[in-house]
Sequence to fold (531 residues):
Amino acid sequence: MPPLCTSLRALRTSQCPSTLLRVPLSRSIAKSPFLSPARRYASTQSEAAADARSVVTRLKNLLYGTSITLFLTFSYIYVTDTRSSIHQYVSVPALRYICSDAEDAHHFGTKALKTLYSLGLHPRERQTPKEKSGRDTDIGVDVFGEKLICPIGTSAGIDKLAEVPDALFALGAAIVEVGGTTPRPQPGNPKPRVFRLPGQNALINRYGLNSLGADDMARRLRERVRIFAKKEGYGADGEQLVLSGQAGVPPGSLQKGKLLAVQVAKNKDTKDGDIEAVRADYVYCVERLAPYADILVVNVSSPNTPGLRTLQAVEPLTRILEGVVGAARAVTRSHAQTPKVMVKVSPDEDSDEQMEGIVEAIWKSGVDGVIVGNTTNRRTLPETSVISSKEKEILKETGGLSGPHMFERTLGLVKRYRKLLDQGPPAHDGEKESTSDGGVASALTSAKDSVVAAVRGPSGRPSRDQKVIFATGGITNGKQALEILNAGASVAQIYTALIYGGVGTVTRIKKEIKKEIEEGEKSVSRRLVVA
Ligand SMILES: Cc1cc2nc3c(=O)[nH]c(=O)nc-3n(C[C@H](O)[C@H](O)[C@H](O)COP(=O)(O)O)c2cc1C
Fold:
Protein backbone atom coordinates (compact mmCIF):
# COMPACT_ATOMS: atom_id res chain seq x y z
CA MET A 1 0.00 0.00 0.00
CA PRO A 2 1.63 3.30 -1.07
CA PRO A 3 2.23 5.77 1.75
CA LEU A 4 -0.23 8.63 2.00
CA CYS A 5 1.01 12.16 1.50
CA THR A 6 1.08 14.23 4.53
CA SER A 7 2.43 17.53 3.22
CA LEU A 8 0.43 19.90 1.09
CA ARG A 9 3.58 20.86 -0.85
CA ALA A 10 4.09 17.30 -1.91
CA LEU A 11 0.51 17.18 -3.00
CA ARG A 12 0.73 20.39 -5.08
CA THR A 13 3.90 19.48 -6.81
CA SER A 14 2.53 16.00 -7.43
CA GLN A 15 5.58 14.48 -5.79
CA CYS A 16 3.41 12.29 -3.68
CA PRO A 17 4.25 8.65 -4.27
CA SER A 18 0.68 7.69 -3.70
CA THR A 19 -0.84 6.93 -7.07
CA LEU A 20 -4.26 7.67 -5.68
CA LEU A 21 -3.34 11.21 -4.84
CA ARG A 22 -1.43 12.04 -8.02
CA VAL A 23 -4.50 13.75 -9.52
CA PRO A 24 -3.90 17.37 -10.62
CA LEU A 25 -4.97 19.58 -7.78
CA SER A 26 -6.90 22.05 -9.98
CA ARG A 27 -9.02 19.26 -11.41
CA SER A 28 -10.05 17.87 -8.03
CA ILE A 29 -10.87 21.39 -6.76
CA ALA A 30 -12.92 22.18 -9.89
CA LYS A 31 -15.09 19.13 -9.27
CA SER A 32 -15.73 20.08 -5.66
CA PRO A 33 -19.50 20.41 -4.91
CA PHE A 34 -18.68 23.22 -2.44
CA LEU A 35 -17.57 25.70 -5.15
CA SER A 36 -19.92 28.35 -6.63
CA PRO A 37 -20.74 27.93 -10.42
CA ALA A 38 -18.65 31.04 -11.27
CA ARG A 39 -15.61 29.73 -9.43
CA ARG A 40 -16.21 26.30 -10.88
CA TYR A 41 -16.27 27.86 -14.38
CA ALA A 42 -13.04 29.74 -13.67
CA SER A 43 -11.42 26.57 -12.43
CA THR A 44 -12.49 24.69 -15.55
CA GLN A 45 -11.01 27.47 -17.67
CA SER A 46 -7.70 27.30 -15.87
CA GLU A 47 -7.75 23.51 -16.13
CA ALA A 48 -8.27 23.76 -19.90
CA ALA A 49 -5.42 26.28 -20.11
CA ALA A 50 -3.17 23.97 -18.11
CA ASP A 51 -4.09 21.03 -20.31
CA ALA A 52 -3.36 23.11 -23.41
CA ARG A 53 0.00 24.13 -21.92
CA SER A 54 0.83 20.54 -21.19
CA VAL A 55 -0.07 19.53 -24.78
CA VAL A 56 2.19 22.34 -26.07
CA THR A 57 4.97 21.20 -23.74
CA ARG A 58 4.53 17.64 -24.93
CA LEU A 59 4.61 18.73 -28.56
CA LYS A 60 7.70 20.82 -27.90
CA ASN A 61 9.41 17.87 -26.22
CA LEU A 62 8.43 15.65 -29.14
CA LEU A 63 9.84 18.22 -31.56
CA TYR A 64 13.08 18.57 -29.58
CA GLY A 65 13.37 14.80 -29.22
CA THR A 66 12.75 14.22 -32.93
CA SER A 67 15.18 16.99 -33.92
CA ILE A 68 17.89 15.62 -31.66
CA THR A 69 17.32 12.08 -32.95
CA LEU A 70 17.37 13.26 -36.58
CA PHE A 71 20.46 15.39 -35.93
CA LEU A 72 22.28 12.46 -34.30
CA THR A 73 21.22 10.08 -37.09
CA PHE A 74 22.35 12.43 -39.86
CA SER A 75 25.56 13.27 -37.97
CA TYR A 76 26.23 9.55 -37.59
CA ILE A 77 25.59 8.91 -41.28
CA TYR A 78 27.64 11.94 -42.34
CA VAL A 79 30.61 11.48 -40.01
CA THR A 80 30.88 7.73 -40.58
CA ASP A 81 30.75 8.07 -44.38
CA THR A 82 34.13 8.14 -46.11
CA ARG A 83 32.70 10.50 -48.75
CA SER A 84 32.17 13.31 -46.22
CA SER A 85 34.57 16.17 -46.74
CA ILE A 86 34.79 16.75 -42.98
CA HIS A 87 37.46 14.03 -42.85
CA GLN A 88 39.85 15.85 -45.15
CA TYR A 89 39.07 19.45 -44.29
CA VAL A 90 38.40 19.22 -40.55
CA SER A 91 39.80 15.99 -39.07
CA VAL A 92 43.20 16.10 -40.79
CA PRO A 93 44.05 19.76 -39.94
CA ALA A 94 42.63 19.29 -36.41
CA LEU A 95 44.78 16.22 -35.83
CA ARG A 96 47.83 18.09 -37.11
CA TYR A 97 47.01 20.99 -34.80
CA ILE A 98 46.44 18.80 -31.73
CA CYS A 99 49.52 16.60 -32.29
CA SER A 100 52.51 18.60 -33.45
CA ASP A 101 54.57 15.39 -33.63
CA ALA A 102 53.64 13.33 -36.70
CA GLU A 103 54.13 10.02 -34.91
CA ASP A 104 51.88 11.08 -32.01
CA ALA A 105 49.25 12.09 -34.56
CA HIS A 106 49.50 8.65 -36.15
CA HIS A 107 49.07 6.87 -32.79
CA PHE A 108 46.14 9.13 -31.95
CA GLY A 109 44.51 8.37 -35.31
CA THR A 110 45.05 4.63 -34.93
CA LYS A 111 43.62 4.62 -31.39
CA ALA A 112 40.61 6.66 -32.51
CA LEU A 113 39.97 4.29 -35.42
CA LYS A 114 40.29 1.27 -33.13
CA THR A 115 37.88 2.69 -30.54
CA LEU A 116 35.37 3.83 -33.14
CA TYR A 117 35.51 0.43 -34.84
CA SER A 118 34.84 -1.37 -31.57
CA LEU A 119 31.78 0.87 -31.04
CA GLY A 120 30.55 0.51 -34.62
CA LEU A 121 31.07 4.24 -35.17
CA HIS A 122 34.02 3.99 -37.57
CA PRO A 123 34.14 5.68 -40.98
CA ARG A 124 33.12 3.31 -43.74
CA GLU A 125 32.56 3.26 -47.48
CA ARG A 126 28.84 3.05 -48.16
CA GLN A 127 27.43 1.89 -51.45
CA THR A 128 25.97 4.58 -53.68
CA PRO A 129 22.50 3.95 -55.22
CA LYS A 130 24.28 3.34 -58.56
CA GLU A 131 26.49 0.71 -56.96
CA LYS A 132 23.52 -0.93 -55.28
CA SER A 133 21.65 -1.15 -58.56
CA GLY A 134 24.63 -2.89 -60.19
CA ARG A 135 24.88 -0.18 -62.89
CA ASP A 136 28.16 1.15 -61.56
CA THR A 137 31.46 0.86 -63.43
CA ASP A 138 33.14 -2.35 -62.33
CA ILE A 139 36.71 -1.72 -61.18
CA GLY A 140 37.30 -5.19 -59.80
CA VAL A 141 40.62 -6.90 -60.54
CA ASP A 142 41.68 -10.55 -60.43
CA VAL A 143 44.59 -11.00 -58.07
CA PHE A 144 45.85 -14.39 -56.90
CA GLY A 145 42.56 -16.05 -57.80
CA GLU A 146 40.42 -13.56 -55.85
CA LYS A 147 38.28 -11.01 -57.64
CA LEU A 148 39.20 -7.91 -55.66
CA ILE A 149 36.52 -5.24 -55.27
CA CYS A 150 38.96 -2.62 -56.58
CA PRO A 151 42.65 -2.14 -57.42
CA ILE A 152 43.44 0.08 -54.40
CA GLY A 153 45.28 -0.93 -51.24
CA THR A 154 46.87 0.63 -48.18
CA SER A 155 50.58 0.03 -47.78
CA ALA A 156 52.81 -1.13 -44.93
CA GLY A 157 53.53 1.09 -41.96
CA ILE A 158 50.01 2.46 -41.56
CA ASP A 159 49.05 -0.37 -39.23
CA LYS A 160 52.40 -1.60 -37.98
CA LEU A 161 50.99 -3.81 -35.22
CA ALA A 162 47.89 -5.12 -37.04
CA GLU A 163 45.57 -3.27 -34.67
CA VAL A 164 43.06 -1.95 -37.20
CA PRO A 165 43.01 -4.09 -40.38
CA ASP A 166 39.21 -4.26 -40.46
CA ALA A 167 38.82 -0.52 -39.92
CA LEU A 168 41.18 -0.01 -42.91
CA PHE A 169 39.23 -2.46 -45.05
CA ALA A 170 36.09 -0.52 -44.14
CA LEU A 171 37.64 2.56 -45.80
CA GLY A 172 37.22 0.77 -49.13
CA ALA A 173 40.65 -0.78 -49.65
CA ALA A 174 40.85 -4.22 -51.27
CA ILE A 175 44.35 -4.86 -49.93
CA VAL A 176 45.47 -3.95 -46.43
CA GLU A 177 49.13 -4.55 -45.66
CA VAL A 178 49.92 -4.73 -41.95
CA GLY A 179 53.41 -4.57 -40.43
CA GLY A 180 56.31 -4.65 -41.00
CA THR A 181 57.02 -6.85 -38.08
CA THR A 182 60.34 -8.27 -36.94
CA PRO A 183 60.69 -11.67 -35.23
CA ARG A 184 61.69 -10.26 -31.85
CA PRO A 185 60.38 -6.95 -30.48
CA GLN A 186 62.60 -3.94 -31.18
CA PRO A 187 62.11 -0.27 -30.31
CA GLY A 188 63.21 1.31 -33.60
CA ASN A 189 65.12 4.58 -33.73
CA PRO A 190 64.90 7.31 -31.07
CA LYS A 191 62.12 9.91 -31.43
CA PRO A 192 61.41 12.20 -33.17
CA ARG A 193 61.51 9.97 -36.22
CA VAL A 194 58.65 11.12 -38.43
CA PHE A 195 58.60 14.58 -40.04
CA ARG A 196 55.95 16.36 -42.04
CA LEU A 197 56.53 18.46 -45.14
CA PRO A 198 53.00 19.88 -45.50
CA GLY A 199 53.96 22.16 -48.37
CA GLN A 200 54.82 19.06 -50.42
CA ASN A 201 52.20 16.71 -48.89
CA ALA A 202 55.23 14.58 -48.06
CA LEU A 203 56.77 12.80 -45.08
CA ILE A 204 60.20 11.71 -43.94
CA ASN A 205 60.40 8.77 -41.56
CA ARG A 206 63.18 6.84 -39.90
CA TYR A 207 61.12 4.57 -37.67
CA GLY A 208 63.64 1.76 -38.08
CA LEU A 209 60.99 -0.98 -38.06
CA ASN A 210 59.76 -0.53 -34.50
CA SER A 211 57.86 -3.70 -33.70
CA LEU A 212 56.33 -5.68 -30.84
CA GLY A 213 57.48 -8.84 -32.60
CA ALA A 214 55.88 -11.57 -34.70
CA ASP A 215 54.37 -13.45 -31.73
CA ASP A 216 52.50 -10.35 -30.62
CA MET A 217 51.10 -9.77 -34.10
CA ALA A 218 50.17 -13.46 -34.45
CA ARG A 219 48.31 -13.32 -31.13
CA ARG A 220 46.36 -10.26 -32.25
CA LEU A 221 45.49 -11.72 -35.66
CA ARG A 222 44.46 -15.02 -34.10
CA GLU A 223 42.15 -13.23 -31.67
CA ARG A 224 40.60 -11.42 -34.64
CA VAL A 225 39.88 -14.77 -36.35
CA ARG A 226 38.34 -16.18 -33.14
CA ILE A 227 36.07 -13.15 -32.75
CA PHE A 228 35.03 -13.47 -36.40
CA ALA A 229 34.31 -17.22 -36.05
CA LYS A 230 32.27 -16.63 -32.90
CA LYS A 231 30.30 -13.83 -34.48
CA GLU A 232 29.51 -16.02 -37.47
CA GLY A 233 28.43 -18.83 -35.13
CA TYR A 234 30.92 -21.43 -36.41
CA GLY A 235 31.04 -23.31 -33.10
CA ALA A 236 33.91 -24.94 -31.26
CA ASP A 237 36.05 -25.57 -34.37
CA GLY A 238 35.30 -22.10 -35.76
CA GLU A 239 38.90 -20.90 -35.77
CA GLN A 240 40.10 -23.94 -37.73
CA LEU A 241 37.16 -23.68 -40.08
CA VAL A 242 38.07 -20.09 -40.94
CA LEU A 243 41.82 -20.71 -41.23
CA SER A 244 41.32 -23.73 -43.51
CA GLY A 245 39.20 -21.67 -45.88
CA GLN A 246 36.00 -23.65 -45.28
CA ALA A 247 34.22 -20.50 -44.17
CA GLY A 248 34.33 -19.35 -47.81
CA VAL A 249 36.30 -16.17 -47.14
CA PRO A 250 40.05 -15.59 -47.49
CA PRO A 251 41.59 -16.60 -44.13
CA GLY A 252 43.49 -13.31 -43.89
CA SER A 253 41.01 -10.62 -44.86
CA LEU A 254 37.94 -12.58 -43.66
CA GLN A 255 35.98 -10.84 -46.42
CA LYS A 256 35.29 -11.77 -50.03
CA GLY A 257 36.98 -9.54 -52.60
CA LYS A 258 39.71 -8.42 -50.21
CA LEU A 259 43.12 -9.74 -49.16
CA LEU A 260 45.23 -9.18 -46.07
CA ALA A 261 48.97 -8.80 -46.62
CA VAL A 262 51.31 -9.26 -43.66
CA GLN A 263 54.77 -7.77 -43.94
CA VAL A 264 57.82 -9.35 -42.31
CA ALA A 265 61.37 -8.11 -41.84
CA LYS A 266 64.54 -8.99 -39.96
CA ASN A 267 65.72 -7.63 -36.61
CA LYS A 268 68.24 -4.80 -36.70
CA ASP A 269 70.74 -6.75 -34.58
CA THR A 270 70.73 -9.81 -36.85
CA LYS A 271 73.94 -9.48 -38.87
CA ASP A 272 73.34 -8.88 -42.59
CA GLY A 273 76.44 -10.91 -43.47
CA ASP A 274 75.03 -13.99 -41.72
CA ILE A 275 72.53 -14.99 -44.37
CA GLU A 276 71.38 -18.10 -42.50
CA ALA A 277 70.51 -15.97 -39.46
CA VAL A 278 68.75 -13.41 -41.65
CA ARG A 279 66.79 -16.15 -43.41
CA ALA A 280 65.87 -17.62 -40.02
CA ASP A 281 64.47 -14.22 -38.97
CA TYR A 282 62.13 -14.08 -41.96
CA VAL A 283 61.16 -17.73 -41.66
CA TYR A 284 60.36 -17.30 -37.96
CA CYS A 285 57.93 -14.47 -38.80
CA VAL A 286 56.33 -16.47 -41.60
CA GLU A 287 55.86 -19.56 -39.43
CA ARG A 288 54.02 -17.46 -36.85
CA LEU A 289 52.01 -15.28 -39.20
CA ALA A 290 51.32 -17.24 -42.40
CA PRO A 291 48.10 -18.87 -41.07
CA TYR A 292 46.51 -15.42 -40.77
CA ALA A 293 47.75 -13.95 -44.06
CA ASP A 294 46.56 -14.08 -47.65
CA ILE A 295 49.83 -12.54 -48.82
CA LEU A 296 53.20 -12.44 -47.07
CA VAL A 297 55.43 -9.51 -47.95
CA VAL A 298 59.18 -9.77 -47.53
CA ASN A 299 60.58 -6.33 -46.74
CA VAL A 300 64.14 -5.91 -47.98
CA SER A 301 63.71 -2.28 -48.88
CA SER A 302 63.26 -0.19 -45.74
CA PRO A 303 65.97 2.49 -45.83
CA ASN A 304 66.01 2.75 -42.02
CA THR A 305 67.51 -0.61 -41.09
CA PRO A 306 71.22 -0.48 -41.88
CA GLY A 307 72.22 -3.08 -44.42
CA LEU A 308 68.67 -4.25 -45.19
CA ARG A 309 68.78 -3.11 -48.79
CA THR A 310 72.00 -5.04 -49.43
CA LEU A 311 69.85 -8.16 -49.11
CA GLN A 312 68.44 -7.34 -52.55
CA ALA A 313 71.53 -8.82 -54.23
CA VAL A 314 70.72 -12.07 -56.10
CA GLU A 315 72.35 -14.61 -53.81
CA PRO A 316 71.11 -13.45 -50.38
CA LEU A 317 67.71 -12.52 -51.77
CA THR A 318 67.23 -15.94 -53.36
CA ARG A 319 68.19 -17.70 -50.10
CA ILE A 320 65.80 -15.58 -48.04
CA LEU A 321 62.93 -15.85 -50.48
CA GLU A 322 63.33 -19.62 -50.85
CA GLY A 323 63.06 -19.91 -47.07
CA VAL A 324 59.95 -17.76 -46.96
CA VAL A 325 58.26 -19.55 -49.87
CA GLY A 326 58.97 -22.92 -48.23
CA ALA A 327 57.48 -21.78 -44.90
CA ALA A 328 54.46 -20.24 -46.59
CA ARG A 329 53.70 -23.38 -48.62
CA ALA A 330 53.86 -25.43 -45.40
CA VAL A 331 50.63 -23.87 -44.16
CA THR A 332 47.79 -26.35 -44.41
CA ARG A 333 44.55 -25.06 -45.86
CA SER A 334 42.06 -27.61 -47.12
CA HIS A 335 39.75 -25.11 -48.83
CA ALA A 336 41.98 -22.16 -49.78
CA GLN A 337 45.32 -21.47 -51.36
CA THR A 338 48.40 -21.20 -49.17
CA PRO A 339 49.49 -17.58 -48.65
CA LYS A 340 51.15 -15.95 -51.64
CA VAL A 341 54.58 -14.38 -51.23
CA MET A 342 55.66 -10.98 -52.52
CA VAL A 343 58.91 -9.10 -52.10
CA LYS A 344 58.89 -5.35 -51.52
CA VAL A 345 61.80 -3.72 -53.33
CA SER A 346 63.40 -0.30 -53.07
CA PRO A 347 62.92 2.47 -55.63
CA ASP A 348 66.57 3.45 -55.15
CA GLU A 349 68.06 0.15 -56.37
CA ASP A 350 67.11 0.96 -59.94
CA SER A 351 70.10 0.15 -62.12
CA ASP A 352 69.44 -2.49 -64.81
CA GLU A 353 71.84 -4.83 -63.06
CA GLN A 354 70.14 -4.48 -59.69
CA MET A 355 66.66 -4.90 -61.10
CA GLU A 356 67.65 -7.93 -63.20
CA GLY A 357 69.18 -9.48 -60.09
CA ILE A 358 65.96 -9.02 -58.15
CA VAL A 359 63.92 -10.49 -60.98
CA GLU A 360 66.26 -13.47 -61.16
CA ALA A 361 65.81 -14.08 -57.42
CA ILE A 362 62.03 -13.84 -57.84
CA TRP A 363 62.02 -16.53 -60.51
CA LYS A 364 64.53 -18.77 -58.74
CA SER A 365 62.70 -18.71 -55.42
CA GLY A 366 59.16 -19.07 -56.78
CA VAL A 367 57.92 -15.85 -55.23
CA ASP A 368 54.51 -14.83 -56.59
CA GLY A 369 55.02 -11.12 -57.07
CA VAL A 370 56.78 -7.91 -56.29
CA ILE A 371 55.78 -4.69 -54.55
CA VAL A 372 57.56 -1.97 -56.47
CA GLY A 373 58.57 0.96 -54.32
CA ASN A 374 59.10 2.17 -50.81
CA THR A 375 60.33 5.46 -49.37
CA THR A 376 63.44 6.94 -50.99
CA ASN A 377 66.79 8.11 -49.69
CA ARG A 378 66.98 10.58 -52.56
CA ARG A 379 65.98 14.16 -52.04
CA THR A 380 65.08 15.12 -55.58
CA LEU A 381 61.88 17.15 -55.65
CA PRO A 382 60.43 18.55 -58.89
CA GLU A 383 62.06 21.83 -59.95
CA THR A 384 58.68 23.52 -59.75
CA SER A 385 58.32 22.73 -56.02
CA VAL A 386 58.18 25.77 -53.79
CA ILE A 387 59.99 24.80 -50.59
CA SER A 388 60.04 26.95 -47.47
CA SER A 389 63.30 27.36 -45.56
CA LYS A 390 61.80 25.32 -42.70
CA GLU A 391 61.05 22.47 -45.09
CA LYS A 392 64.54 22.73 -46.57
CA GLU A 393 65.84 22.01 -43.05
CA ILE A 394 63.44 19.09 -42.63
CA LEU A 395 64.65 17.65 -45.94
CA LYS A 396 68.07 17.27 -44.31
CA GLU A 397 66.63 14.77 -41.79
CA THR A 398 67.85 11.21 -42.25
CA GLY A 399 65.15 8.79 -43.37
CA GLY A 400 62.92 7.71 -46.22
CA LEU A 401 61.04 10.40 -48.10
CA SER A 402 57.54 9.68 -49.38
CA GLY A 403 54.90 11.71 -51.19
CA PRO A 404 53.56 12.79 -54.58
CA HIS A 405 56.98 13.61 -56.06
CA MET A 406 57.65 9.85 -56.15
CA PHE A 407 54.94 9.13 -58.68
CA GLU A 408 56.88 9.36 -61.97
CA ARG A 409 59.67 7.22 -60.56
CA THR A 410 57.21 4.56 -59.38
CA LEU A 411 55.53 4.58 -62.79
CA GLY A 412 58.86 4.12 -64.58
CA LEU A 413 59.86 1.30 -62.25
CA VAL A 414 56.57 -0.53 -62.70
CA LYS A 415 57.01 -0.44 -66.49
CA ARG A 416 60.55 -1.75 -66.24
CA TYR A 417 59.68 -4.50 -63.75
CA ARG A 418 56.68 -5.54 -65.86
CA LYS A 419 58.89 -5.87 -68.91
CA LEU A 420 61.62 -7.77 -67.06
CA LEU A 421 59.20 -10.12 -65.34
CA ASP A 422 57.26 -10.81 -68.52
CA GLN A 423 60.42 -12.01 -70.20
CA GLY A 424 60.13 -15.03 -67.93
CA PRO A 425 62.71 -16.95 -65.93
CA PRO A 426 66.28 -16.81 -67.14
CA ALA A 427 66.88 -20.00 -69.17
CA HIS A 428 70.18 -21.87 -68.86
CA ASP A 429 71.57 -20.49 -72.11
CA GLY A 430 70.72 -16.96 -71.09
CA GLU A 431 67.58 -16.86 -73.26
CA LYS A 432 64.36 -15.89 -71.53
CA GLU A 433 61.14 -17.84 -71.72
CA SER A 434 58.15 -15.57 -72.17
CA THR A 435 55.35 -16.27 -69.72
CA SER A 436 52.96 -13.51 -70.46
CA ASP A 437 50.22 -13.06 -73.00
CA GLY A 438 51.78 -9.78 -73.92
CA GLY A 439 51.58 -8.12 -70.55
CA VAL A 440 48.78 -6.00 -69.30
CA ALA A 441 50.05 -2.81 -70.86
CA SER A 442 51.47 -3.96 -74.18
CA ALA A 443 48.25 -5.56 -75.37
CA LEU A 444 46.35 -2.34 -75.02
CA THR A 445 45.60 -0.46 -78.14
CA SER A 446 42.56 1.77 -78.12
CA ALA A 447 41.95 4.59 -75.72
CA LYS A 448 39.03 2.66 -74.32
CA ASP A 449 41.14 -0.42 -73.77
CA SER A 450 43.89 1.55 -72.17
CA VAL A 451 41.53 2.78 -69.51
CA VAL A 452 39.23 -0.15 -69.10
CA ALA A 453 41.72 -2.96 -69.48
CA ALA A 454 43.94 -1.30 -66.95
CA VAL A 455 41.66 -2.57 -64.29
CA ARG A 456 40.36 -5.65 -66.04
CA GLY A 457 43.38 -6.91 -67.92
CA PRO A 458 43.37 -7.38 -71.71
CA SER A 459 41.74 -10.76 -71.38
CA GLY A 460 40.04 -10.03 -68.11
CA ARG A 461 42.80 -11.58 -66.06
CA PRO A 462 46.62 -11.78 -66.01
CA SER A 463 48.17 -14.78 -67.73
CA ARG A 464 48.66 -17.97 -65.74
CA ASP A 465 52.26 -17.57 -64.67
CA GLN A 466 52.53 -13.83 -64.75
CA LYS A 467 54.14 -12.39 -61.65
CA VAL A 468 51.89 -9.91 -59.90
CA ILE A 469 53.00 -6.33 -59.30
CA PHE A 470 51.69 -3.98 -56.64
CA ALA A 471 52.92 -0.40 -56.80
CA THR A 472 53.59 2.07 -54.01
CA GLY A 473 55.10 5.54 -54.09
CA GLY A 474 53.46 8.87 -54.79
CA ILE A 475 50.02 7.66 -55.88
CA THR A 476 47.51 10.32 -54.89
CA ASN A 477 44.60 10.22 -57.36
CA GLY A 478 42.56 8.02 -59.68
CA LYS A 479 44.29 9.14 -62.86
CA GLN A 480 47.67 8.19 -61.45
CA ALA A 481 46.32 4.90 -60.12
CA LEU A 482 45.08 4.07 -63.64
CA GLU A 483 48.44 4.96 -65.19
CA ILE A 484 50.11 2.63 -62.71
CA LEU A 485 47.66 -0.15 -63.55
CA ASN A 486 48.14 0.46 -67.27
CA ALA A 487 51.86 0.13 -66.73
CA GLY A 488 51.33 -3.42 -65.52
CA ALA A 489 50.53 -3.29 -61.80
CA SER A 490 47.45 -5.02 -60.42
CA VAL A 491 47.11 -2.90 -57.30
CA ALA A 492 48.04 0.69 -56.44
CA GLN A 493 48.86 1.14 -52.75
CA ILE A 494 48.77 4.38 -50.82
CA TYR A 495 50.22 5.69 -47.59
CA THR A 496 51.17 9.39 -47.55
CA ALA A 497 48.08 10.40 -49.56
CA LEU A 498 45.95 8.90 -46.78
CA ILE A 499 47.82 10.84 -44.10
CA TYR A 500 47.17 14.14 -45.89
CA GLY A 501 43.80 13.29 -47.39
CA GLY A 502 42.18 11.50 -44.44
CA VAL A 503 39.97 8.45 -44.26
CA GLY A 504 38.04 9.30 -47.43
CA THR A 505 41.10 9.01 -49.68
CA VAL A 506 40.53 5.45 -50.92
CA THR A 507 36.89 6.21 -51.79
CA ARG A 508 37.93 9.39 -53.62
CA ILE A 509 40.56 7.58 -55.68
CA LYS A 510 38.10 4.83 -56.62
CA LYS A 511 35.54 7.41 -57.69
CA GLU A 512 38.17 9.14 -59.84
CA ILE A 513 39.13 5.83 -61.47
CA LYS A 514 35.50 5.19 -62.38
CA LYS A 515 35.16 8.70 -63.79
CA GLU A 516 38.30 8.24 -65.92
CA ILE A 517 36.98 4.96 -67.27
CA GLU A 518 33.53 6.37 -68.01
CA GLU A 519 35.01 9.41 -69.76
CA GLY A 520 37.40 7.17 -71.70
CA GLU A 521 34.51 4.98 -72.83
CA LYS A 522 32.45 8.02 -73.80
CA SER A 523 35.23 9.52 -75.89
CA VAL A 524 35.76 6.20 -77.67
CA SER A 525 32.06 5.84 -78.48
CA ARG A 526 32.03 9.47 -79.70
CA ARG A 527 34.93 8.69 -82.01
CA LEU A 528 33.20 5.52 -83.22
CA VAL A 529 30.05 7.47 -84.06
CA VAL A 530 32.06 10.05 -86.03
CA ALA A 531 33.91 7.34 -87.93
C1 LIG B 1 55.71 6.76 -41.58
C2 LIG B 1 55.94 5.67 -42.56
C3 LIG B 1 56.15 4.36 -42.11
C4 LIG B 1 56.38 3.34 -43.03
N1 LIG B 1 56.60 2.06 -42.59
C5 LIG B 1 56.83 1.08 -43.50
C6 LIG B 1 57.06 -0.26 -43.09
O1 LIG B 1 56.99 -0.61 -41.91
N2 LIG B 1 57.34 -1.17 -44.05
C7 LIG B 1 57.39 -0.84 -45.39
O2 LIG B 1 57.65 -1.69 -46.22
N3 LIG B 1 57.12 0.41 -45.80
C8 LIG B 1 56.85 1.37 -44.89
N4 LIG B 1 56.60 2.62 -45.33
C9 LIG B 1 56.58 2.89 -46.79
C10 LIG B 1 55.15 2.88 -47.34
O3 LIG B 1 54.55 1.64 -47.18
C11 LIG B 1 55.13 3.27 -48.82
O4 LIG B 1 55.72 2.24 -49.56
C12 LIG B 1 55.86 4.57 -49.10
O5 LIG B 1 55.53 5.53 -48.15
C13 LIG B 1 55.56 5.12 -50.51
O6 LIG B 1 54.19 5.29 -50.71
P1 LIG B 1 53.42 6.70 -50.55
O7 LIG B 1 54.07 7.70 -51.42
O8 LIG B 1 52.01 6.38 -50.91
O9 LIG B 1 53.56 7.07 -49.10
C14 LIG B 1 56.38 3.64 -44.42
C15 LIG B 1 56.13 4.95 -44.85
C16 LIG B 1 55.90 5.96 -43.95
C17 LIG B 1 55.63 7.34 -44.45
User: Anything to note?
Assistant: Residues 140-530 form a domain with the TIM Barrel fold (CATH 3.20.20.70).
